[in-house]
Amino acid sequence: MPPRTITISDLGLRISAVLPRMCLSGPTETPLIFKASFVGILRVVIEERALFTHKQITPQSFGVQGYEYKYSNCTGRRKALLIGINYIGTKAQLKGCINDVNNVKQFLVQHGYAEGDIVVLTDDQTQMVKVPMRANIIKAIGWLVNGAQPNDSLFFHYSGHGSQVPDQDGDEEDGIDETIVPLDYETSGQIIDDELHARLVQPLPAGVRLTALFDSCHSGSVLDLPYTYSTKGVLKEPNLAKEVGEGLLQAAKSYIINDQTNMLKGLKALGEMVMKGGPNEDAYEKTKRTKTAPADVVMFSGSKDDQTSADANEGGVPTGAMSFAFIKVMNKAPQQTYLSLLQNMREIMVDKYTQKPQFSASHPIDVNLQFIF
Please, one GO biological process term (predicted)? Predict the structure, then answer.
Protein backbone atom coordinates (compact mmCIF):
# COMPACT_ATOMS: atom_id res chain seq x y z
CA MET A 1 0.00 0.00 0.00
CA PRO A 2 1.59 3.33 -1.04
CA PRO A 3 2.23 5.88 1.71
CA ARG A 4 -0.46 8.49 2.14
CA THR A 5 0.47 12.16 1.96
CA ILE A 6 -0.91 14.37 4.72
CA THR A 7 -1.01 18.11 4.29
CA ILE A 8 -0.88 20.50 7.20
CA SER A 9 -4.11 22.10 6.03
CA ASP A 10 -5.74 18.66 6.16
CA LEU A 11 -4.84 18.54 9.84
CA GLY A 12 -6.36 21.93 10.56
CA LEU A 13 -3.15 23.32 12.08
CA ARG A 14 -1.32 26.61 11.68
CA ILE A 15 2.23 26.23 10.42
CA SER A 16 3.33 29.57 11.83
CA ALA A 17 2.33 28.51 15.34
CA VAL A 18 3.53 24.94 15.26
CA LEU A 19 6.77 25.11 13.31
CA PRO A 20 7.79 28.79 13.28
CA ARG A 21 11.45 28.18 12.37
CA MET A 22 10.61 25.84 9.49
CA CYS A 23 8.27 28.23 7.69
CA LEU A 24 10.23 29.60 4.79
CA SER A 25 7.61 31.69 3.05
CA GLY A 26 4.95 32.62 5.60
CA PRO A 27 2.14 30.60 7.11
CA THR A 28 -0.02 30.03 4.03
CA GLU A 29 1.96 30.51 0.81
CA THR A 30 4.29 27.55 1.30
CA PRO A 31 2.84 24.92 3.62
CA LEU A 32 4.68 21.73 4.37
CA ILE A 33 3.71 18.18 3.52
CA PHE A 34 4.58 15.20 5.69
CA LYS A 35 5.13 11.91 3.94
CA ALA A 36 5.03 8.96 6.30
CA SER A 37 5.93 5.44 5.28
CA PHE A 38 6.33 2.35 7.41
CA VAL A 39 9.19 -0.02 6.59
CA GLY A 40 10.00 -1.70 9.88
CA ILE A 41 10.43 1.72 11.50
CA LEU A 42 8.80 5.06 10.91
CA ARG A 43 10.57 7.18 8.29
CA VAL A 44 9.51 10.77 7.85
CA VAL A 45 10.37 13.03 4.94
CA ILE A 46 9.52 16.73 5.23
CA GLU A 47 9.37 18.61 1.98
CA GLU A 48 8.22 22.04 0.89
CA ARG A 49 5.41 22.29 -1.64
CA ALA A 50 2.86 24.91 -2.62
CA LEU A 51 -0.79 24.02 -2.08
CA PHE A 52 -4.05 25.47 -3.26
CA THR A 53 -6.38 26.95 -0.69
CA HIS A 54 -8.95 24.42 0.50
CA LYS A 55 -12.63 25.06 -0.01
CA GLN A 56 -14.76 25.94 3.00
CA ILE A 57 -15.87 22.70 4.67
CA THR A 58 -19.41 22.78 5.99
CA PRO A 59 -20.06 21.09 9.35
CA GLN A 60 -21.21 17.51 9.07
CA SER A 61 -22.65 15.10 11.58
CA PHE A 62 -24.26 11.69 11.69
CA GLY A 63 -25.47 9.44 14.43
CA VAL A 64 -27.03 6.13 15.30
CA GLN A 65 -29.87 5.62 12.83
CA GLY A 66 -33.26 6.16 14.44
CA TYR A 67 -31.77 7.52 17.66
CA GLU A 68 -33.59 10.54 19.06
CA TYR A 69 -31.98 13.33 21.03
CA LYS A 70 -33.00 16.80 22.07
CA TYR A 71 -31.18 20.09 22.53
CA SER A 72 -31.63 21.93 25.82
CA ASN A 73 -32.57 25.61 25.89
CA CYS A 74 -30.99 25.88 29.38
CA THR A 75 -33.94 27.74 30.89
CA GLY A 76 -34.54 25.31 33.78
CA ARG A 77 -32.66 24.72 37.01
CA ARG A 78 -28.91 25.23 37.07
CA LYS A 79 -26.52 23.10 39.13
CA ALA A 80 -22.75 22.77 39.09
CA LEU A 81 -20.12 20.42 40.50
CA LEU A 82 -16.56 21.75 40.57
CA ILE A 83 -13.61 19.53 41.54
CA GLY A 84 -10.06 20.81 42.01
CA ILE A 85 -7.24 18.66 43.36
CA ASN A 86 -3.75 20.01 44.05
CA TYR A 87 -2.64 16.76 45.78
CA ILE A 88 -1.20 18.89 48.55
CA GLY A 89 1.88 17.43 50.24
CA THR A 90 2.28 14.55 47.78
CA LYS A 91 4.89 13.77 45.12
CA ALA A 92 2.23 14.51 42.51
CA GLN A 93 1.41 18.00 43.82
CA LEU A 94 -0.06 20.55 41.42
CA LYS A 95 -0.45 24.27 41.98
CA GLY A 96 -3.32 25.65 39.93
CA CYS A 97 -6.28 23.28 40.28
CA ILE A 98 -7.93 24.87 43.31
CA ASN A 99 -7.50 28.28 41.68
CA ASP A 100 -9.23 26.88 38.59
CA VAL A 101 -12.25 25.84 40.63
CA ASN A 102 -12.47 29.21 42.37
CA ASN A 103 -12.26 31.00 39.02
CA VAL A 104 -14.89 28.79 37.38
CA LYS A 105 -17.22 29.22 40.36
CA GLN A 106 -16.91 33.01 40.13
CA PHE A 107 -17.56 32.79 36.39
CA LEU A 108 -20.70 30.67 36.85
CA VAL A 109 -22.12 32.93 39.57
CA GLN A 110 -21.62 35.90 37.25
CA HIS A 111 -23.64 34.01 34.64
CA GLY A 112 -26.64 33.18 36.77
CA TYR A 113 -25.72 30.09 38.77
CA ALA A 114 -26.75 30.37 42.44
CA GLU A 115 -23.99 29.67 44.97
CA GLY A 116 -26.35 27.31 46.79
CA ASP A 117 -26.56 25.17 43.65
CA ILE A 118 -22.80 24.84 43.26
CA VAL A 119 -20.92 22.04 45.05
CA VAL A 120 -17.14 22.46 45.37
CA LEU A 121 -14.72 19.65 46.22
CA THR A 122 -11.11 20.71 46.84
CA ASP A 123 -8.31 19.24 48.93
CA ASP A 124 -7.77 22.38 51.02
CA GLN A 125 -11.10 22.03 52.85
CA THR A 126 -11.50 21.05 56.50
CA GLN A 127 -14.81 19.21 56.13
CA MET A 128 -14.01 15.70 54.93
CA VAL A 129 -17.27 15.50 52.96
CA LYS A 130 -15.94 18.31 50.73
CA VAL A 131 -12.54 16.72 50.06
CA PRO A 132 -12.29 15.06 46.60
CA MET A 133 -11.97 11.47 47.75
CA ARG A 134 -13.36 8.91 45.32
CA ALA A 135 -16.50 8.25 47.35
CA ASN A 136 -17.20 11.97 47.73
CA ILE A 137 -16.80 12.54 43.98
CA ILE A 138 -19.22 9.70 43.18
CA LYS A 139 -21.74 11.01 45.72
CA ALA A 140 -21.47 14.56 44.35
CA ILE A 141 -21.99 13.34 40.77
CA GLY A 142 -25.16 11.63 41.98
CA TRP A 143 -26.34 14.93 43.46
CA LEU A 144 -25.61 16.73 40.18
CA VAL A 145 -27.64 14.44 37.91
CA ASN A 146 -30.40 13.45 40.33
CA GLY A 147 -33.84 14.76 39.34
CA ALA A 148 -32.63 16.47 36.17
CA GLN A 149 -35.45 17.61 33.87
CA PRO A 150 -35.55 18.77 30.23
CA ASN A 151 -34.01 22.24 29.78
CA ASP A 152 -32.07 22.02 33.05
CA SER A 153 -28.43 23.05 32.77
CA LEU A 154 -25.72 21.13 34.63
CA PHE A 155 -22.05 22.10 34.72
CA PHE A 156 -19.20 19.74 35.65
CA HIS A 157 -15.63 20.99 36.02
CA TYR A 158 -12.62 18.85 36.91
CA SER A 159 -9.10 20.18 37.35
CA GLY A 160 -6.50 17.69 38.51
CA HIS A 161 -4.47 14.73 37.35
CA GLY A 162 -5.67 12.53 34.53
CA SER A 163 -4.23 9.16 33.63
CA GLN A 164 -4.74 6.06 31.49
CA VAL A 165 -5.33 2.36 32.14
CA PRO A 166 -5.83 -0.62 29.79
CA ASP A 167 -9.30 -0.78 28.23
CA GLN A 168 -11.39 -3.75 29.35
CA ASP A 169 -14.51 -3.54 27.16
CA GLY A 170 -13.23 -2.85 23.64
CA ASP A 171 -14.66 0.65 23.22
CA GLU A 172 -11.34 2.51 22.94
CA GLU A 173 -9.68 3.11 19.58
CA ASP A 174 -6.23 3.10 21.22
CA GLY A 175 -6.97 0.25 23.66
CA ILE A 176 -6.64 2.58 26.66
CA ASP A 177 -9.24 4.02 29.04
CA GLU A 178 -8.85 7.59 30.30
CA THR A 179 -9.27 8.41 33.99
CA ILE A 180 -9.53 11.14 36.57
CA VAL A 181 -7.48 10.75 39.73
CA PRO A 182 -9.18 11.25 43.12
CA LEU A 183 -7.08 12.33 46.08
CA ASP A 184 -7.21 8.80 47.54
CA TYR A 185 -6.52 7.02 44.25
CA GLU A 186 -3.76 4.87 45.77
CA THR A 187 -6.25 3.13 48.07
CA SER A 188 -9.61 3.66 46.32
CA GLY A 189 -8.59 3.66 42.68
CA GLN A 190 -9.05 6.02 39.76
CA ILE A 191 -12.36 6.73 38.04
CA ILE A 192 -12.31 5.48 34.44
CA ASP A 193 -14.15 7.03 31.51
CA ASP A 194 -16.71 4.22 31.32
CA GLU A 195 -17.78 4.88 34.90
CA LEU A 196 -17.86 8.64 34.36
CA HIS A 197 -20.11 8.12 31.34
CA ALA A 198 -22.37 5.74 33.25
CA ARG A 199 -22.76 8.16 36.16
CA LEU A 200 -22.73 11.56 34.43
CA VAL A 201 -24.26 10.93 31.00
CA GLN A 202 -26.49 7.85 30.99
CA PRO A 203 -28.88 8.94 33.78
CA LEU A 204 -29.82 12.17 31.99
CA PRO A 205 -33.05 12.34 29.96
CA ALA A 206 -33.38 14.04 26.58
CA GLY A 207 -33.28 17.81 26.76
CA VAL A 208 -30.97 18.09 29.78
CA ARG A 209 -27.76 20.01 29.15
CA LEU A 210 -24.54 18.86 30.78
CA THR A 211 -21.53 21.03 30.05
CA ALA A 212 -18.31 19.30 31.11
CA LEU A 213 -14.94 21.04 31.33
CA PHE A 214 -11.92 18.81 31.99
CA ASP A 215 -8.54 20.42 32.68
CA SER A 216 -6.47 17.26 33.00
CA CYS A 217 -4.03 15.10 31.08
CA HIS A 218 -5.33 12.51 28.59
CA SER A 219 -8.83 14.01 28.73
CA GLY A 220 -9.86 13.96 25.06
CA SER A 221 -12.36 11.12 25.52
CA VAL A 222 -12.63 11.05 29.32
CA LEU A 223 -16.45 11.04 29.12
CA ASP A 224 -16.56 8.52 26.25
CA LEU A 225 -18.65 10.88 24.12
CA PRO A 226 -18.81 9.47 20.56
CA TYR A 227 -18.79 12.68 18.51
CA THR A 228 -15.59 14.73 18.47
CA TYR A 229 -15.31 17.76 16.21
CA SER A 230 -12.29 19.43 14.66
CA THR A 231 -11.63 23.15 14.50
CA LYS A 232 -13.11 23.04 10.98
CA GLY A 233 -16.42 21.85 12.39
CA VAL A 234 -15.95 18.39 10.91
CA LEU A 235 -16.67 15.19 12.78
CA LYS A 236 -13.47 13.27 13.49
CA GLU A 237 -13.16 9.57 12.68
CA PRO A 238 -10.34 7.02 13.08
CA ASN A 239 -7.58 7.83 10.59
CA LEU A 240 -4.10 6.35 10.93
CA ALA A 241 -2.38 8.66 8.46
CA LYS A 242 -3.86 11.75 10.06
CA GLU A 243 -2.96 10.59 13.57
CA VAL A 244 0.63 10.02 12.43
CA GLY A 245 0.85 13.50 10.93
CA GLU A 246 -0.54 15.15 14.05
CA GLY A 247 1.77 13.09 16.23
CA LEU A 248 4.80 14.19 14.25
CA LEU A 249 3.79 17.84 14.45
CA GLN A 250 3.29 17.48 18.19
CA ALA A 251 6.75 15.99 18.62
CA ALA A 252 8.27 18.73 16.47
CA LYS A 253 6.68 21.48 18.54
CA SER A 254 7.82 19.82 21.77
CA TYR A 255 11.35 19.73 20.37
CA ILE A 256 11.25 23.40 19.38
CA ILE A 257 10.19 24.55 22.86
CA ASN A 258 12.74 22.16 24.43
CA ASP A 259 10.11 19.89 25.97
CA GLN A 260 12.09 16.68 25.53
CA THR A 261 9.94 14.61 27.89
CA ASN A 262 6.69 15.22 26.00
CA MET A 263 8.47 14.79 22.67
CA LEU A 264 9.67 11.31 23.66
CA LYS A 265 6.27 10.40 25.14
CA GLY A 266 4.55 11.49 21.94
CA LEU A 267 6.89 9.52 19.69
CA LYS A 268 6.55 6.45 21.91
CA ALA A 269 2.73 6.62 21.79
CA LEU A 270 2.87 7.17 18.04
CA GLY A 271 5.09 4.14 17.55
CA GLU A 272 2.81 1.96 19.67
CA MET A 273 -0.22 3.02 17.64
CA VAL A 274 1.56 2.28 14.36
CA MET A 275 2.60 -1.18 15.57
CA LYS A 276 -1.04 -1.90 16.47
CA GLY A 277 -2.11 -0.92 12.97
CA GLY A 278 -3.72 2.40 13.89
CA PRO A 279 -6.93 3.44 15.58
CA ASN A 280 -9.46 0.65 16.16
CA GLU A 281 -12.43 1.43 13.92
CA ASP A 282 -14.50 -1.36 15.50
CA ALA A 283 -14.07 0.35 18.87
CA TYR A 284 -15.19 3.64 17.34
CA GLU A 285 -18.36 2.06 15.97
CA LYS A 286 -19.02 0.39 19.32
CA THR A 287 -18.67 3.73 21.10
CA LYS A 288 -21.18 5.33 18.72
CA ARG A 289 -23.57 2.43 19.19
CA THR A 290 -23.35 2.22 22.99
CA LYS A 291 -22.44 5.75 24.13
CA THR A 292 -24.67 7.96 21.96
CA ALA A 293 -27.11 9.51 24.43
CA PRO A 294 -30.40 11.46 24.25
CA ALA A 295 -29.23 14.10 26.73
CA ASP A 296 -27.55 17.26 25.44
CA VAL A 297 -24.01 16.62 26.71
CA VAL A 298 -21.03 18.64 25.49
CA MET A 299 -17.45 18.49 26.72
CA PHE A 300 -14.44 20.74 26.34
CA SER A 301 -11.27 18.94 27.39
CA GLY A 302 -7.75 20.26 27.83
CA SER A 303 -5.90 17.81 25.64
CA LYS A 304 -6.08 14.85 23.30
CA ASP A 305 -5.97 11.39 24.85
CA ASP A 306 -2.24 11.08 24.16
CA GLN A 307 -1.33 14.53 25.50
CA THR A 308 -0.59 16.04 28.88
CA SER A 309 -2.19 19.26 30.16
CA ALA A 310 -0.16 22.10 31.58
CA ASP A 311 -0.17 23.26 35.19
CA ALA A 312 0.48 26.80 34.00
CA ASN A 313 1.13 30.28 35.33
CA GLU A 314 -0.80 33.27 34.04
CA GLY A 315 -0.04 36.72 35.41
CA GLY A 316 1.96 35.20 38.26
CA VAL A 317 -0.97 33.01 39.37
CA PRO A 318 -0.92 29.19 39.04
CA THR A 319 -3.75 27.97 36.82
CA GLY A 320 -4.69 25.23 34.41
CA ALA A 321 -4.14 26.29 30.81
CA MET A 322 -7.55 25.02 29.70
CA SER A 323 -9.56 26.60 32.53
CA PHE A 324 -7.79 29.90 31.97
CA ALA A 325 -8.45 29.86 28.22
CA PHE A 326 -12.14 28.98 28.63
CA ILE A 327 -12.83 31.83 31.05
CA LYS A 328 -10.75 34.32 29.08
CA VAL A 329 -12.57 33.60 25.81
CA MET A 330 -16.02 33.70 27.39
CA ASN A 331 -15.34 36.90 29.32
CA LYS A 332 -13.99 38.65 26.24
CA ALA A 333 -16.89 37.66 23.96
CA PRO A 334 -19.75 35.73 25.62
CA GLN A 335 -21.62 35.16 22.33
CA GLN A 336 -19.61 32.15 21.17
CA THR A 337 -20.60 29.23 19.01
CA TYR A 338 -19.29 25.82 20.01
CA LEU A 339 -16.87 26.01 17.11
CA SER A 340 -15.63 29.54 17.77
CA LEU A 341 -15.11 28.73 21.45
CA LEU A 342 -12.95 25.76 20.53
CA GLN A 343 -11.04 27.78 17.94
CA ASN A 344 -10.48 30.74 20.26
CA MET A 345 -9.25 28.56 23.12
CA ARG A 346 -6.83 26.88 20.72
CA GLU A 347 -5.67 30.32 19.58
CA ILE A 348 -4.85 31.38 23.14
CA MET A 349 -2.97 28.18 23.92
CA VAL A 350 -1.17 27.37 20.69
CA ASP A 351 1.91 29.56 21.18
CA LYS A 352 2.59 28.53 24.79
CA TYR A 353 1.43 24.94 25.16
CA THR A 354 1.65 21.72 23.16
CA GLN A 355 -1.79 20.48 24.28
CA LYS A 356 -4.83 20.90 22.04
CA PRO A 357 -8.30 21.47 23.53
CA GLN A 358 -10.94 19.05 22.26
CA PHE A 359 -14.71 19.35 21.80
CA SER A 360 -17.06 16.37 21.86
CA ALA A 361 -20.75 15.63 22.31
CA SER A 362 -23.15 12.83 23.21
CA HIS A 363 -24.99 13.19 19.89
CA PRO A 364 -24.35 14.86 16.53
CA ILE A 365 -24.39 18.62 17.07
CA ASP A 366 -24.48 21.75 14.96
CA VAL A 367 -21.24 23.37 16.07
CA ASN A 368 -22.38 26.73 14.66
CA LEU A 369 -25.12 27.03 17.28
CA GLN A 370 -24.51 29.46 20.12
CA PHE A 371 -22.84 27.90 23.14
CA ILE A 372 -25.20 28.13 26.11
CA PHE A 373 -24.78 26.73 29.59
Answer: proteolysis
